[in-house]
């Protein structure tokens, strides 16, 4: 009898819990996540629209006769295209990609396309992972994406080395969208750990821009490599926010809204402190750039604002219930809004009439601020007891320390010293 009398109370508690969840979810918008972040400058955000167009060009069968080009074109000189690999060339080892030498911007770019819903090899890459399966460089990474990154390095190591040595003043940029963003981010880490294979390239010459990034590495790695890896997120994009394994997302692609809603309810009930202390939980990599173009309870799009930070806690932990959660993942929209944001920032600079000398000083100041912010994020990760997080080196290097000099394969008991076997490091993705 007492149990029956208690049922109405349980129902009331359940209804109140659901009402609270709905209230928080409806008021939680993507803009709130980055409202305390700093505003990006023209200099640091300038490469993003250009790299988005390069990624879009990978979808073309013939770059000299483009079919899907944006209104202003790709901005590519076909004669500067070094190579182009298709699915036929990669044989399922990695998504298609191009290597392009951008002489106008003094940059060597390897751009990787996103998921192809019609290709089984892309699904195989996504499904090749289990929670905590692959440990690498003192953290955890997505196994399938790491294998794809290793495949690309093995295939293009000689080409990249030749270009890096031929153009010693050029940066080496890895970029990709969605599936390709995860491959590009992990490829960046593999290259940094194998710099001897690219002619001992300096770390500061290597960088990555992950567009609509997949959650591909644990929090300690995401923060540690924030000095060279940058992630770009458009407003409500679902992929950087959901900790649901990629393999589960794309298994249920046709019921994606249901999966996102259920995951949203689950994450609301899990304390963030518990999330941070799970060493196997994967995150969007590096420094985050958040393009915000919509406001809550208002129709239409507003002039986009780009915010940036290296957050440790509050790192896109909750899904936003929005009808734009999937459309904001599209590379076409990201390129369009990134270009709009860059034009607005450029117009503001012109209006302020900033002298060239002052712009150079601002770039130097920005570099120092980014370094300080990166170190502060590493220190905060230690304060929050993030697993495997360690203090930065006083000499400003992160790849040569003991904590990052080895990795373990899928078997946690087996390890490989990178210093003892440098030639085997690049083969990490092929095992």
Automatic annotation (TrEMBL):
Source organism, top-level taxon: Eukaryota
Region (Disordered): 395-431
Gene Ontology biological-process entries: lipid catabolic process
Start and end residues of each Fungal lipase-type domain: 109-244
Biased composition regions of type Basic and acidic residues, renumbered to the chain: 418-431
Compositional bias segments (type: Polar residues): 403-416
Annotated Mono-/di-acylglycerol lipase N-terminal domain residues: 10-75
InterPro entries: AB_hydrolase_fold (IPR029058), Fungal_lipase-type (IPR002921), Mono/diacylglycerol_lipase_N (IPR005592)
PANTHER family (alphabetical): ALPHA/BETA-HYDROLASES SUPERFAMILY PROTEIN (PTHR46398), ALPHA_BETA-HYDROLASES SUPERFAMILY PROTEIN (PTHR46398:SF4)
Record's protein name: Calmodulin-binding heat-shock protein
